[in-house]
Amino acid sequence: MTVLAAPCPQPYNGVNTYVMNGVEAAVSPLNDHQLEQIHEERKRQIKKAALKVFALHGIAGTKISSIAAAAGISQGLSYRYFSSKEELYTELVQDALDEAESAMGHIHELPGTPAEQIRAFTCLMLDPDNRLSFLLIRQVQISEEAPEAAKRLIEQHPPEKTIERLMPIFIKGQKEGEFYEGEPAQLLLCYFSVITGLMLQESPYVEDFWIRQADVLMRMIKKP
Amino acid sequence: MTVLAAPCPQPYNGVNTYVMNGVEAAVSPLNDHQLEQIHEERKRQIKKAALKVFALHGIAGTKISSIAAAAGISQGLSYRYFSSKEELYTELVQDALDEAESAMGHIHELPGTPAEQIRAFTCLMLDPDNRLSFLLIRQVQISEEAPEAAKRLIEQHPPEKTIERLMPIFIKGQKEGEFYEGEPAQLLLCYFSVITGLMLQESPYVEDFWIRQADVLMRMIKKP
DNA sequence: TTTCGATGAATGAACTGTTCATTCATTATT
DNA sequence: AATAATGAATGAACAGTTCATTCATCGAAA
Lengths: 224, 224
What we know:
Largest sheet of chain A: none
Structural class of chain A: mainly alpha
Distance between the termini of chain A: 74 Å
Helix content of chain A: 55-70%
Shape of chain A: elongated
Low-confidence stretches of chain A: 1-30
Oligomer: homodimer
Radius of gyration of chain A: 23 Å
């Protein structure tokens, strides 16, 4: 059995890897740029798979082996790119925040009525390209299980400001008679629960599926 | 060290638990009937707590210790009443199915327009007394983790028939011009995702909170 | 062109710490 | 005496991480 073994020849070290051989690093087989590009590409591949699994099952409900399976790689490989499950998760949260931020930044500048703005926002949330990111963020906000690092990221960023940004739009919509009356906070709460429910839904593959859903949703809010 | 001391002998429980002594009790310990009643009462107490935790976190995400904490009892006690976690879960699913069945049985007999029927159904799903049961059922339907026994229960019972029961109502509503047009299946799908989202929401304690939510929801479906 | 050696990406079995369902010796209650 | 209840202890399974090994690719030498 196994028990030992020994050599552990190369320690690891994040930065550089082997040097040995004489004349320091005289030879480099593939140019550094290409190498790095390949490296980044693989990272992206892993992240993409991980996002899908994490967003749907949470960090605790996700095993590395599932991610590996989803990414089509072996269990151990992700550790070459991410030093731990938590780091991977946290990095995904960071990306999601960036994406959400950039996606939401434009909502305000959009011209148009409040209804048009909310509709745009709705489409954004339901867009398959953003959906998982929003789910991940919401996950960190809602459940306990998220790593501390991820929670801190969310606190810093303007994440939950979402509500604060939307609220004025709702109020304006009501004032102008475009929206239904009622406590705006409650309308927003309902709207959000509903959006979350929809995001969890796996979509059948119809081109404009989400657009149509968004229109159905809007009927909750906007007078015809 | 710790924290607690004190055994917490009386588990509170809303209703009442023990009959504490009493003259006659001193003489004859407790007759069988009384004993059984106490036993059943405690079972109900455990089930109530377990339902809440299971419905929100799933069977895998729930530990016996959480249930115990929620029920205000010790870790080991539930094993006096249920032989395993799975058994407890499965029994809850059975109860939920019964409840759902009896609750839904009346939908059809309700007089009124399709909109009124759907509204009644919506209120049913959102009713705090039913909400958790419906969530539990949906959980078994959707995820893999449920025990085989529970899955079998669901297959036998008329569970997913929900959709089949609702569909005709939707179609009728559209035919009569009371509902919005569109693929009825899609409208239903949207409606269901949305309901699920709402059920997951913890309600602020306002008396008619869910009623109002139901009305907001109905706007998705029914023309004004 | 073929062969060789070097490099580091990739694998997956083994290791290990942790978690958690279940048990049980003990105590409290009637 | 008998039953209810406790909560610490157990142990098995689970899942994150490591690491010895294999594989694929490439530059250079023959």
